[in-house]
TrEMBL record:
Residues 8-104 form the DRTGG domain. Pfam families: DRTGG. This is DRTGG domain-containing protein. InterPro entries: DRTGG, Ser_kin/Pase_Hpr-like_N_sf.
Length: 117
């Protein structure tokens, strides 16, 4: 699956880094707690979150993620977009709530890879 496939499945809007739309993604994680993402996520390509702040982008960068999806219709501000552009992380928004967005992606073959070990 590509980032563009994710965009289509979630009926989402791309805010920046459209060059990443052709990138392959194999797994995703949905969380509003960045500490959990740092502690338990392994080899994720996509981060779904309802948390709208620069820490989400910094976390995605640390975890080598290609794309951040903001759920529940949340819209990133210029600070978040500038940081995402600098870090080359695609930003997408969807009106779907987190549970639905994760379910749709899972239904279409995108797997999770969280580990509590």
């Amino acid at each position: 699956m590509t980032v563009n496939d994710v965009k289509i499945i979630l009926n989402a809007k791309v805010w920046c880094c459209e060059s990443k739309l052709s990138a392959e993604v194999h797994s995703a994680c949905g969380s509003d707690m960045m500490s959990d993402v740092l502690a338990f996520v392994k080899d994720q390509s996509v981060l779904l979150s309802g948390l709208i702040n620069p820490q989400v982008i910094r976390t995605a960068e640390m975890m080598d993620m290609l794309c951040v999806i903001f759920v529940r219709g949340k819209q990133p501000d210029e600070t978040i977009l500038a940081l995402a552009k600098e870090k080359e992380i695609c930003i997408i928004t969807t009106a779907h709530p987190m549970f639905t967005a994760c379910g749709l992606l899972y239904q279409h073959g995108l797997k999770g890879g969280c580990s509590a070990e």
